[in-house]
TrEMBL record:
Pfam families: Amidase_2
Range of residues in the leader sequence: none
Protein name: Peptidoglycan-binding protein
Annotated InterPro entries: Amidase/PGRP_sf (IPR036505), Amidase_domain (IPR002502)
UniProt-listed CDD domains: PGRP
Domain N-acetylmuramoyl-L-alanine amidase: 27-180
GO biological process per UniProt: peptidoglycan catabolic process
GO MF entry, a single one: N-acetylmuramoyl-L-alanine amidase activity
Amino acid sequence: MAPPMSANEFLAALRREGATVVEVDGWRHHNRAGHGPWGPVNGVMIHHTASSGTDSTVRLCWNGYDRLPGPLCHGVIAKDGRIHLVGCGRANHAGAGDGDVLQAVIAEKRLPPVRWADTDGNVHFYGFECVNLGDGEDPWPDEQLLAAEQVAAAICRYHGWTERSVIGHLEWRPGKTDPVGFSMEQLRERVRERLK
């Protein structure tokens, strides 16, 4: 468990890892403060957006929609590997998930099968939405996968976590499938190698 990074710490950690960052105006203070706590933080969650187009996806993740206000993540990872920062603080990305999974993340152990939605994940996870249709056919360019690796490793390195603190939405909440198109074990292995 750890206190969340400040905006400056977050930006610096991403840049130290070599990530290409785009700061969306106002991201440092854009969050869901007042709608639940932010922290202690325990991990990084990766999603796909089920959308296409960087600009429209960044707007969606900034604004949210009728039933779910933005920000919908902390950063949007575009196909070209640029990370568009849209929030700092509590964000509406994880939703309720399995408390047993959270305990495994905290202990940095292998994840159990996801069964319940009994724990607020927005408290505990940094979230990144990757621009992808999530249909199993939309490609994942190397630049985008590298950026996902970089953001996950940057946060893990800052907090002193291992790759076991990186999970996919499908590993957190019953019924979720994202990300589709690569395995979280593959991403965790890339993060593990980067953290050596």
